[in-house]
C-alpha cells in the first residue's frame, strides 16, 4: 500500500484536529445517522483513554464514535477520492453521512476507504468513525472480555502495556487519478561501486511506466522503462547505519505520452544478510545497540507526536544507540521514515504479543490451558496474524532502515502446537519478503531443550531477566545463569544471537550502597553485568534494553504507575544508567565489543 503523498498528480488533505466524541453507551443505536449528540470532543491523533477525567471512558469496552464534517476540494472532479486511516486501534467502521462505507480490523496498520462514488468535489459530508479497542482470542494482539459481578464488561489482555485505543494516528482525505500507480516494490544491491535498484510497479488501467532515480542533489543518475526492471547507479552512495543516504525513485504512468500519475519513493541502497554467526549490513558485521520502545507518552497514550519523535531520536543519538525494535506492534510510518533519513536500524515487529498462556500462569510457565488450542490461539487467530503480516510487510517493505521482521513477541514456542501455528506464518513472511531475516523474541521459559521453532528463523532474539524476575538482587547468580543460557543457544543453533530484552525496574531518585532492586545503582550494575557476559561471546550480535522509557501498563500490584524499566523516565529524563550506557555505546559504532572492524 502506497502512503498518500502530494505529487503532480495527487493531493491530500489532513483531517487531524478536534472531533466530536462519544462512547456507545451514551448515544443511540445508530449515532452516525445525524450529528453526534455529545458534549465531548477528542483530539486526533491521540488515544482517547487519558484525554478525559471520566473513568468510564478510560476503561471503556465497546465502541466509541468520532465525528467531524469534511469538505472535498473543488478541484478533485474526475479523481478517485479516498479516506486514509494511518491506524485505528483495534477495529474501525466508517460511515459517510448515513451510509456504512467499510471496516478494518487491526490496530496498527493503515487502511483506505474509497469514497469516489458517494462524495463530490466541492461538496461536504459528515464523517463518523466507530472504533473498538476490544481484544479477543481472534485478534492480534489477543485478549478476552469478561462480565464482572457489577455487570460491567472488563477487558483482559495478556501483554504488559496499557491497551490504548482510538484514532492514534493521522486521518487523511486524498485523491489519485483513475489510471494510477497502485504499488511499488524495490530491492537494492551493489557490486563494487555500482548500485542496483530492482523495481516492480503495479498499475491500474492501461498505460506505460517509466522510472528515474535522482541523487540527494536532485541529479538524475539512472532511468528505465517498463513495469519491472533494474536501474544501475554508478558510484553509488550506500545507505549505512549512522550515515543515511536516500535517492528518489520517481515512477510515472503515461497514457499516449501524457503523464497521468506520478509517485516518488525514497530509496536507500543497502543489503542485509545473515551468514553464520554474523548479521551483515552491506556485507559488514553489524552489532545492534539500542532498545525496545513503545509508542507511549503522557495524555496522548499511543498518539503520534512529532515533537516526541524528534526528541526520542535525539536521545538515541545522544546515548549512542543505533537501533530499536518496534515492540510490540508496527509504529507509525513517520517513525520508520525518520529512521530512514537518520540511519537508525529497525527491527519491525508485528502486534502478535500475548500468544502465551504460560505468561498468565506467571513465571512458572504453566498455562491454564494450551496456548495453541481452540480455546485461545486457533486457526482464526492465525488468519488474523497472517493478515497483519501482509499489511505490515506491504507497508514497510521499501524502508531501508528495516533490516529484520520480528513476527511475534514471547510466544509459547515451548508448547505443543507452536510449530503448526508458526510454520505457515514463516513461509508467508518469506514469500512476502525474501530479502530480510526473520526473528521472534523468546520468552524466558522457552529454552534450548523445549523450544520448537527456532530452526525456522534466522536470528536468536532472547528476552531474559536474570537478576530481576529470576535471582532478584543476586547479580553473581544471574551472571552464571545468563552465560550458561547464551552458551546453550550457541551450541544448539549456530545462528547469530542477540538480547532483545533485558532490564530492571528503576525508581528515579532511589539509591542504595547495596544491590537493592529498584535503585538507580542496581539498574546500572545489572546492565554492566549483562554487557560483561555479552562480550564473552563472538556469536553475539546485539543488545537492546527493555525499555527506552517508562510506559503505562494495566492495573496490577506488580506495577506502580507503569513499567519502570526505562533508561529514561516517561517524560524522557535520564536515569543514572543512561550515562553508563552512553560511555559504552558511543565507543562501539556498530562494532562487536573487542573487535576493530
UniProtKB/TrEMBL annotation:
GO terms for biological process: carbohydrate metabolic process; glucuronoside catabolic process. Its EC number is 3.2.1.31. Keywords: Glycosidase, Hydrolase. The gene is uidA. The keyword Nucleus does not apply. Gene3D superfamilies: Galactose-binding domain-like, Glycosidases, Immunoglobulins. GO terms for molecular function: beta-glucuronidase activity; carbohydrate binding. Residues 272-587 form the Glycoside hydrolase family 2 catalytic domain. InterPro entries: Beta-gal/glucu_dom_sf, Galactose-bd-like_sf, GH, Glyco_hydro_2, Glyco_hydro_2_AS, Glyco_hydro_2_cat, Glyco_hydro_2_CS, Glyco_hydro_2_N. Residues 180-270 form the Glycoside hydrolase family 2 immunoglobulin-like beta-sandwich domain. Belongs to the glycosyl hydrolase 2 family. Residues 14-177 form the Glycosyl hydrolases family 2 sugar binding domain. This is Beta-glucuronidase.
